[in-house]
Design brief:
The complex is a heterodimer. Chain A is an alpha+beta fold. Chain A starts with 17 loop residues before the first strand and ends in a 6-residue tail after the last helix. Chain B contains 22 helices and 20 strands. The chains are: A alpha+beta, B alpha/beta. The complex binds thiamine diphosphate. Thiamine diphosphate binds next to helix 16, helix 18 and helix 20 of chain B.
C-alpha cells in the first residue's frame, strides 16, 4: 500500500499483446479480486493461467491482455491490491500460453 | 497465555485499537459477537434501526475524527443492507471497518438461511476485505484491517466472520500490535523541484484542494502555500473546509454548482494544481474542456489517481501534507496582482448570492441564519439534493472535517445517521443537519437512534415537497415533465419526529422562522424543524451534466453572460 511506484514515466508501447505476470497471495478470494478489478475497470482479459508456487502460500498468475489504452491504469490498480505482491510486464507472447494454443486451436465438438 | 473465543478476541482487538463506539444491529450470525460486546466496558454499542444507518453512523465518527468508524451487521440481509454505506465510504475514502456475521463454515456455499456471498459482493466497494476461515486468522486480520483502512488513501475494509469462527476457542501467547497508519514514501525530489519551478513561473495558477487535504490533515500547509505564492484556492465538495470560507484567497467550490466567477477563472488559469483531488466529473465538467490552457500538477497519495483522467505534467505521489510542506520553501513570494484583478472583476460581476437571496425565508438565507446560531466548533451535515448544494455554496465553513456530506456516491439518507455519529463522537458539540424531505425519508427510522442516544443534532428539513434536484433536471433538460419527482402527499415531519419522542416544530406558511430556529438550537438533545421551501427554488448556477464548466445556466447576473 505504501509502494510508491512512479509509472507514468514508463512508456507503454501501443503494440497489442502483452502478458502481466503477477505474484499473489494464494487464498480462495484472490482470483475474484483480480478478475473483478478487470471487469470493473471495463478492461478485457484475453487469457489467464494461475498456478501455486513453492509451498503454496503464493501463486503466480499470467494475464494476457491486448488493450494498450488504460493498461497503465489497470497496472496501477493491480499494484494497489494488498494480495498482489509483484507485477511484471512481458511484451508480446509468453511461453506459458504457447503450450496452451494446442488446446484452443483444435476446438472440440460439443457432442 | 490467553484463552477466549473468536468473538471475545474480536472485541478485545477492537478495544486495543482504542475504538469507543460501535454501530450495528444484531442477528443470528453475529450473536456470539454481541454476547462478547455486552461484556465490554470500553466499547459503547449504538443500536441503529437499519444497517445502512449503522454504516453511515460509523462514517460520521470517522469523518469528524479521522479515526476508524466501526460497524456490525449480521449475515444475509444485514450485510446487504450495510453495503450502500460501505460503497459511500469507498468513494469518499473514509476509514471504516465493517464486521459482518456469516453462516457457519460448514454451511457456506449451501444457500443456507441468511447466507449471501458478502465477501464477493463487497470486493468492488472496499479497499480490501476478508473472509475469516479460522479463529487464528483474527489475530492478524483485525489489526491489518485497521492499518489498511487508515494507511495511504483511507477506505472501508470488510471482515466477514462465520458464526463458528466467532464461537471457536483460541489460546495464544502474545497480543498483536494494533493496526496503525503506515508512513508513505515522500514524493520524488526532482518532481518537487519541477513543480516549484512551474508554480514560480506560472502567471495564473489555481490550487485545487480535495478531500485528500482533509484526510492528510494538510490544511495548514495548503494555506501557507496559497499565501506565500499568492495563489487562488478552489475546493472540491470533499475539500470544503480546508480553507476558511472567509479567506480572501478562497474561491469556494468548483464545478457543477460553483460560483460562476470560480469556474470562469479556471477557464483562464495556466496552471492547475490538484492536491488530494481526483478530477471527478462533477468537479471538472467535460474533462477535455477543463482548464484548457493549463499545465497540471497532481499531488496524490494514490498513484492510480495521477493521470487517470487528465494527464499530469508533474506528479507528486505521496502524502499531500509532506508534499506541500516540501514545496513551500521552494516557492517565491508572489502577489500575482494582475491575476487577482482579473478574478476580482469576475467576482464582482457574478456574486454567488444577491441581497434578495439571503433573507431568512430563502434557502441561502436560512442556511446563513443557522450558521450564525450553530455553536462554536459545531458540525454541519447534509443529505443529497438541492439543500446539499445550497449548503456547499454558501455555508461559511471554517475548518476541515466540519462538513459531512456524501460526495462521490451522493447517497440520499446519508445525513441523519452521519450527523448522529458526528454528535456521539464529539460530545458537547452541536451538529446541524440540512436535509430534504426526500432524503430524510430514506433513513427516517434513525430518528429513533437519535432520541435513544440523545445525540445533539439539529435537523432542518428543507421541505419542498419534491425530489428537488431531480425535479430541477426535469425542468431544465426533460421538457418540464415533473414525473415522479413531486410528492403527492404532504407529510407532517414534526408530528413524525414527535412520534419518535423528538421535540419538533414546523414553520407555518409565512410564519416566523428566526424565532423557531432559535428554539431549535437552544433545545437540549435532538430536535427537528420543518421549513417549507418553494418547489421552484432552484440551485444555480448549474453546469448541465456532461457539459463543459464554461456552460453555466442561471445564477445572479446571468444576463451579463449573454453578450
Ligand atoms: C439513494 C439515492 N436515490 C436516488 C438519488 C437521486 N437523487 C439525487 S437528488 C434527489 C432528490 C433529493 O430530494 P430531497 O432530499 O428532498 O432534496 P432536495 O433536492 O429537494 O433539496 C434524488 C432522488 C440519490 N442521489 N440517492
Amino acid at each position: 500500500m505504501s509502494r510508491n511506484v512512479r509509472l507514468e514515466n514508463c512508456r507503454i508501447p501501443a503494440a497489442a499483446g502483452m502478458v502481466l505476470e503477477l505474484t499473489v497471495n494464494n487464498h480462495p478470494g484472490v482470483m475474484s479480486h483480480i478478475c473483478g478489478l478487470f471487469s470493473r475497470r471495463a478492461y478485457n482479459l484475453e487469457g489467464i493461467v494461475c498456478m501455486p508456487v513453492g509451498t503454496g502460500a503464493m501463486s503466480r498468475m499470467w494475464l494476457q491482455v491486448n488493450e494498450a489504452e488504460k493498461l497503465e491504469q489497470v497496472v496501477k490498480q493491480l499494484q494497489k491490491l494488498p494480495d498482489v505482491l509483484a507485477v511484471q510486464r512481458h511484451e508480446g507472447d509468453h511461453p506459458v500460453f504457447a503450450g496452451l494454443t494446442a488446446f484452443t486451436d483444435s476446438p472440440r465438438s460439443t457432442d | 497465555m490467553y484463552t477466549m473465543n473468536g468473538a471475545r478476541l474480536i472485541i478485545k482487538l477492537l478495544e486495543r485499537q482504542e475504538v469507543e463506539l460501535v454501530a450495528g444491529i444484531p442477528g443470528g450470525a453475529n450473536l456470539p459477537l454481541y454476547e462478547a460486546l455486552a461484556e465490554s466496558r470500553r466499547l459503547r454499542h449504538i443500536l441503529c434501526r437499519h444497517e445502512q444507518g449503522a454504516g453511515f453512523l460509523a462514517q460520521g465518527i470517522a469523518r469528524t475524527t479521522g479515526q476508524v468508524g466501526v460497524c456490525f451487521a449480521t449475515s444475509g440481509p444485514g450485510a446487504t443492507n450495510i453495503l450502500t454505506a460501505i460503497a459511500d465510504a469507498y468513494l469518499d475514502s473514509i476509514p471504516v471497518v465493517c464486521i459482518t456475521g456469516q453462516v457457519p463454515m460448514s454451511l457456506i456455499g449451501t444457500d443456507a438461511f441468511q447466507e449471501v456471498d458478502i465477501y464477493g459482493m463487497s470486493i468492488p466497494i472496499t479497499k480490501h476485505n476478508f473472509l475469516v476461515r479460522s479463529v487464528e486468522e483474527l489475530l492478524e486480520v483485525v489489526p491489518r484491517a485497521f492499518a489498511l483502512a487508515l494507511s495511504g488513501r483511507p477506505g472501508p475494509v470488510l471482515i466477514d466472520v462465520p458464526k463458528d469462527v466467532q464461537s471457536a476457542e483460541i489460546s495464544f501467547h502474545q497480543w498483536p500490535e494494533p493496526g496503525r497508519r503506515l508512513e508513505t514514501q515522500p514524493a520524488d525530489r526532482q518532481q518537487l523541484a519541477a513543480a516549484a519551478e512551474m508554480i514560480n513561473r506560472a502567471r495564473r495558477p489555481v490550487l485545487c484542494l480535495g478531500g485528500g487535504i482533509i484526510h492528510a490533515e494538510a490544511a495548514e500547509e495548503a494555506r501557507a502555500i496559497v499565501e506565500r505564492s499568492g495563489i487562488p484556492a478552489v475546493m472540491t465538495l470533499m475539500g470544503l473546509g480546508s480553507m476558511p470560507a472567509g479567506h480572501p484567497q478562497a474561491l469556494g467550490m468548483l464545478g457543477m454548482h460553483a460560483a460562476r466567477s470560480t469556474n470562469m477563472a479556471l477557464q483562464d488559469c495556466d496552471l492547475f494544481i490538484a492536491a488530494g483531488a481526483r478530477f471527478d466529473d462533477r468537479a471538472t465538467g467535460r474533462i477535455v474542456e477543463f482548464c484548457p490552457a493549463a499545465h497540471v500538477i497532481h499531488m496524490d497519495i494514490d498513484p492510480s489517481e495521477v493521470s487517470k483522467l487528465k494527464p499530469a505534467n508533474v506528479s507528486l505521489v505521496g502524502d499531500v501534507r509532506q508534499s506541500l510542506a516540501s514545496l513551500l520553501p521552494l516557492l517565491e513570494c508572489q502577489e500575482r496582482r494582475s491575476w487577482w484583478r482579473q478574478i476580482q472583476v469576475l467576482q464582482e460581476m457574478y456574486p454567488m448570492a444577491t441581497p434578495e437571496a439571503v433573507v431568512p425565508e430563502k434557502p441561502y438565507g436560512l442556511i446563513l441564519q443557522a450558521a450564525a446560531m450553530l455553536g462554536e466548533g459545531g458540525f454541519v451535515a447534509t443529505d443529497v439534493g438541492k439543500h446539499q448544494m445550497w449548503t456547499a455554496q454558501v455555508y461559511p465553513l471554517g475548518r476541515p472535517r466540519q462538513l459531512l456530506t456524501s460526495g462521490g456516491l451522493g447517497t440520499m439518507g446519508f445525513g441523519l445517521p452521519a450527523a448522529i455519529g458526528a454528535a456521539l463522537a464529539n460530545p458537547g458539540r452541536q451538529v446541524v443537519l440540512f436535509t430534504g424531505d426526500g432524503s430524510l425519508q430514506m433513513n427516517i427510522q434513525e430518528l429513533a437512534t437519535a432520541v435513544e442516544q440523545q445525540a445533539d443534532i439539529k435537523i432542518i428539513v428543507m421541505n419542498n415537497r419534491s425530489l428537488g434536484l431531480v425535479r430541477q433536471q426535469q425542468n431544465l433538460f426533460y421538457r418540464q415533465q415533473f414525473f415522479a419527482s413531486d410528492f403527492q402527499i404532504d407529510i407532517d415531519f414534526a408530528a413524525i419526529a414527535r412520534g419518535f419522542g423528538m421535540p419538533a416544530y414546523s414553520v407555518p406558511d409565512n410564519g416566523e422562522l428566526v424565532g423557531l430556529m432559535a428554539r431549535l438550537f437552544s433545545e437540549k438533545g435532538p430536535c427537528l424543524l420543518n421549513i417549507p421551501i418553494d418547489r421552484e427554488e432552484e440551485v444555480y448556477p448549474m453546469v448541465p451534466p456532461g457539459a463543459a464548466n464554461s456552460i453555466m445556466l442561471g445564477g445572479s447576473h446571468v444576463e451579463k453572460c449573454q453578450a
